[in-house]
Amino acid sequence: MSDLDRLQTHDLEIGITEAIQQHVSRTVVASKPVSQRKLDFEHARPRWLRECMGEATGVFFYVFPGLAATANFTINATAAGGVTAYSSLFQIGWAYAIGITFAIVTCAATSGGHFNPAITIALALWQGFPWKKVPYFIFSQIFGAFMAGILIMGMYWPEIQAMNDKYIAAGLPLVANGAPASILCSFPNTNQTNAGYLVLVEFFVDSFIAIVIWSCLDPANPFVAPAAAPFLIGLAYGNMVWGFADVTIATNLARDLGTRIVASIFYGGEVFTYMNYAPIGILVNVPATLFATAYYEFLMRDSFLIIGRGHAIHEDGEDGLMRHVSKTGRIEEEELRRVMSGGRAATITRTKESESRKMS
């Protein structure tokens, strides 16, 4: 082709544009066959153990990087080069956000991906999660955070010990915001003496996160693809860390209690009594999450659309759905179209024809 001919076409010139060409299709070598021994082992493995380990591992996966970023920030707070050369609240927020994303991606398929006692309780209350599993899941979540705290103390021990010695020599408390114990769990600022203020901050931070989580779990939400949910939930946590970490938040019973137990091993019972904050950090997220999920369930949930799209069924089956449609009157065309797209067209059409005959 001549240069003149090339100029007369609407084709893209060769360059990075080669990337949009259809690539050569290649196959991957088949993996080795699954042995019967492996199948027998997995069949004999208790499901409850698998789910509990999934929850513990998931909590570990986001608490571990979050604590590591916090340790980096706290230990280097007075570094000669400035703390921002090592860490910042912005970095801590990203550590938790990406950690939560990794936790969901790696463990949610195993356990359901609760990773938060408040979410476990909310799922039991609103979505039919078995109540008998709730204690096991909560214990596993706390255990995962505990193990993350233990490991961080071991990995950062020389630096933490040096910080302890420095604080003791200066006559400073080891348990306070910015002190060594704050690597593991939250403590209020010295000027935050109003417990009601701390409850207010914690309550609405946790409510914000819970509504984002519930909207991501809503199958009727067209704006959240399944693959996007881990990133959006992680960003919700990161968003709250960026906005409110400086005024003391905990956000998760398991994360706070598990690491606070580790802190009590190294720094004593004061971590549970300092400024009477521990009950706020440990417990407030539960009623906050229940409030937020109730808000979504009662004011924002569209259960009829969920049934229409085939994600749920009426408790009385097709007959119950038909009775509901008859009782509520004529269905709007847009609502009918949405229900039809979910495979319920026959039921709704029969109902509309029946109503038309009655009117005629």
UniProtKB/TrEMBL annotation:
Gene3D superfamilies: Glycerol uptake facilitator protein (1.20.1080.10). The chain crosses the membrane at residues 59-86, 92-115, 136-155, 167-185, 197-217, 223-245, 280-299. Keywords: Membrane, Transmembrane, Transmembrane helix, Transport. Signal peptide: none annotated. GO terms for cellular component: plasma membrane. InterPro entries: Aquaporin-like (IPR023271), MIP (IPR000425), MIP/Aquaporin (IPR050363), MIP_CS (IPR022357). Pfam families: MIP. It is a multi-pass membrane protein. It is found in: Membrane. GO terms for molecular function: glycerol channel activity; water channel activity. Belongs to the MIP/aquaporin (TC 1.A.8) family. PANTHER family: AQUAPORIN 3 (PTHR43829:SF14), AQUAPORIN OR AQUAGLYCEROPORIN RELATED (PTHR43829). This is Aquaporin-like protein. It comes from Coniella lustricola. The lineage of its organism: Eukaryota, Fungi, Dikarya, Ascomycota, Pezizomycotina.
